Every structure is written in C-alpha cells, then in structure tokens.
Amino acid sequence: MSWSRRLAAYLPRTVERDAGGTEPDPRFTFANERTFLAWSRTALALVVAGLGVVQLLPPFPGVPAGRHLLGVPLIVLGAVLAVAAYAEWVRNQRALRRGEPLPRSILPWLLAATVTGTAVIAAVVLLVSALR
Amino acid sequence: MTAATGPGQPGDDPEERDPGLARERTTLAWTRTAISFAALGGTMLKANVISGLIILALTPVIWQLGRVSRGRPARAGLPAVGPLRLFIITASIVAVSLLCLVIAVFGRSVPGALR
Questions:
Q1: Which residues of chain B make contact with A28, given a CB cutoff of 8 A?
Q2: How many whole angstroms separate alpha carbon A28 and alpha carbon A94?
Q3: Using one digit for the tens of pLDDT, what is the confidence trace for A63-91?
Q4: Each residue's pLDDT tens digit, A30-65
Q5: Which chain B residues touch A20 with a CB distance below 8 Å?
Q6: Å between A6 CA and nearest CA of chain B
Q7: Complex ipTM, two decimals?
Q8: Which of B31, B35, B44, B86 to mutate to test the interface with A (most CBs of A within 10 A)?
Q9: pTM for the structure as a whole
Q10: Is the dihedral of CA B13, B17, B20, B25 positive or negative?
Q11: Candidates A23, A36, A67; nearest CB to B86
Q12: Residue B64 to residue A22: CA distance in whole angstroms
C-alpha cells in the first residue's frame, strides 16, 4: 500500500466510511477516547516544556544554543506524539469494532525515548556549561 | 447471565450497554484537555501575546467539542465517537506546535523569567 493511501486511511471521512465490524461496548469506546485525550495532554505538556525552556530559562553560560538543543526537540516530539496518538486511536477503534486484539502501542516507547533523550542532552549541556 | 459475545462487543443485557460513569470520566478528560490548552496559551502570552490569545481562544472550542452529543443514533458503520473531533484536536496540537516552534526559533526570549 502506498504512503498516500496509508495516510488517507486515517482521515476522519475514511475512518467513518471504512469502520467495518459492529459498534463496540460504549465503555471501551469512551476508554479509547480518554486514552487519546491523555496522550494529547502529554503532547501539549511537551510543547509547553519546550517553549518554556527556550523562552523562559536563562541561557547556559558557554553553550549559546543549549536552550534550543533542549527545547526544539521537545516541541517537535509533542507534535509527533499528537499525530501518533490519533493514529493509535483509529487503529484501536478499528480493532474494537472487529473484535480483534488491540494493536501494540508505540507511544510509551516514543515518550520514554523522548524523556531519556532530553535528560541526556540536558546533562551534556549542563556539564559542558559547567566546564567552560 | 449475558450471551457469549466477542471482546469489545456489547452484550444483550441493556445494563451492559450503559456506559455509566465512563461518559462523565470522558467529559472530565475533555475538560482537562481544554485546561491544558489554556495553560499553553497562558505560557505563550509571555512569549507572544497574539499567539497566546489565539491558543486561549481555542480553549472553549476544545471544551465544546467534548460536549458534542454522543447520544445520536448509531448509523451503520459509524463509530460512536466521531473521528472528526479527535482529528481537530490533533490538528490543533500540530498547529500550536508549529507556532511554538517558530516562536522558539525566531522569537525574542525572556531569559530569567523563571527566576
């Protein structure tokens, strides 16, 4: 399947048209929606954190680009997380409707990698800043 | 005793179809998401007033999206939760992220504002 078709499969109109299966238990639908919203809030938190680092923190002495090194990836990953959360909601909803097992989620891995990467960059920036 | 149904499928018992407090929890989750937008807008006001106001203006829209009636009769092939609402949330976060990225890269910072 081409990339354009894969992307089109996640558009709201396509999701409604190709729903398939039967309406699942509303509690599962609500739970899926809440999970999506929780990931969306996490994405917003990453964006706020990134903006706060760049705009509000004092500059790191000796590392002029330090704040951008920390903040810009957080903002970008916030956007990526939001898109991934929507894609996961679509996949989960399809699986629920068809009575299939829920697909494996990449979001916890993505978030863990983001937090770890940010912590490593922060440690390096602080060390370099302290040594200069 | 409920009829044997597949995972994720509603049973025959009407009580099993009742979402109970799940609806309320979901509405609260929408409210928290709207508050998160407001918090981001408030932070953004410090960096760029117009962008902050735009994001703050999104807050009631997000809150209202969560209040869209879910009790409509289910049409064939239509999920109970319209994907358009969730797509709007995603698109809003991506747009806000791009706005924040532009401000972070090109905007004037307020160093030491957290001191």
A1: 8
A2: 12
A3: 888 899 999 999 999 999 999 999 999 99
A4: 899 999 999 999 999 999 999 889 888 888 888 888
A5: 77
A6: 16
A7: 0.87
A8: B86
A9: 0.83
A10: positive
A11: A36
A12: 28
